[in-house]
Amino acid sequence: MIEIIIDEWKALLIGGFISSMEILAGSLLGLAFGNLFALIAYSLPKVRALILTIVSIFAPIPVVFYLPFSISLFGFGIVQVTLLVALLSTLLFVTAAYTAFTALPRAMLDIANVYRLSSFDKFRMVLLPYAIPSLGVAFRIALAFSWVVAYIGEVKSSDGRNGLGAMTKAYVDLTNYDYAYVCAAAIAFFAIILDQLSSFTFAYFSRWQPIERGAANEV
Question: Residue 61 — φ and ψ, nearest 5°?
């Protein structure tokens, strides 16, 4: 195994980078859209029921059930996998963000009203900081199922890209199982790296509470 890693480290690094970027880009898009739709649902009662109904219908469906539908309609490529990851993770982030928004203590909203914050500033300084811990948990879950989506997408893809899923399938087709095992181990390695990076990032930003600091400074 060590010899294989030494011989193929460049290919493994490139494949891991490609797979990781698909997953990270899709998850970040999902995070952005999830916060947007959660904010719309929180702020506009007229569309709240529609958004929450859509999320409640599609969010509980296991990820693997979306894959055949996606393959039949769009095929699989880098863009398709990234967008599918974004779509599926959006459902998760809407749930996490909206739940956090509605659990916000009334006192924090009162402080925001005292400061006469605009809607955007209220989101940036009150709602989003309070939701960061929940979003961090949702992001790690999104990363986990995104690896499943990316792996299957790379295995089914015919555009010749070199993600770790495609590399694993190529070695299996050649009955070169030792190399396939190394690729599978590389997937686990990059998955752990992304998970730990996201955990550290959200833990760092969870300490960011600008509205509370502003109130403390006034006192």
Answer: -70, 130
Residue range(s) defining the domain that contains residue 12: 2-213
Separation of alpha carbons 198 and 215, rounded Å: 29
Query: What's the pLDDT at 76?
Result: 67
Say if residue 219's pLDDT is above 50: no
Cβ–Cβ under 8 Å, residues 189 and 203:
no
Using one digit for the tens of pLDDT, what is the confidence trace for 52-73? 998 888 878 776 677 666 666 6
CATH (domain of 40): 1.10.3720.10
Distance separating alpha carbons of residues 19 and 197, to the nearest angstrom: 16
Instruction: Give how many domains the chain has, as a whole number.
Output: 1
Q: What is the DSSP string of 41-92?
A: HHH-HHHHHHHHHHHHHHTTS-GGGHHHHHHHHH--SHHHHHHHHHHHHHHH
**For the purposes of burial, counting CB atoms within 10 Å of the CB of 173, is it exposed (0-12), middle (13-18) or buried (19 or more)?**
exposed
In whole angstroms, give the CA distance from residue 163 to residue 17. Answer: 8
Rg of the Cα atoms in the chain:
21
Would you say residue 118 has pLDDT above 70? Answer: yes
Q: What is the pTM of this model?
A: 0.83
How many Cβ atoms sit within 10 Å of the Cβ of residue 122? 20
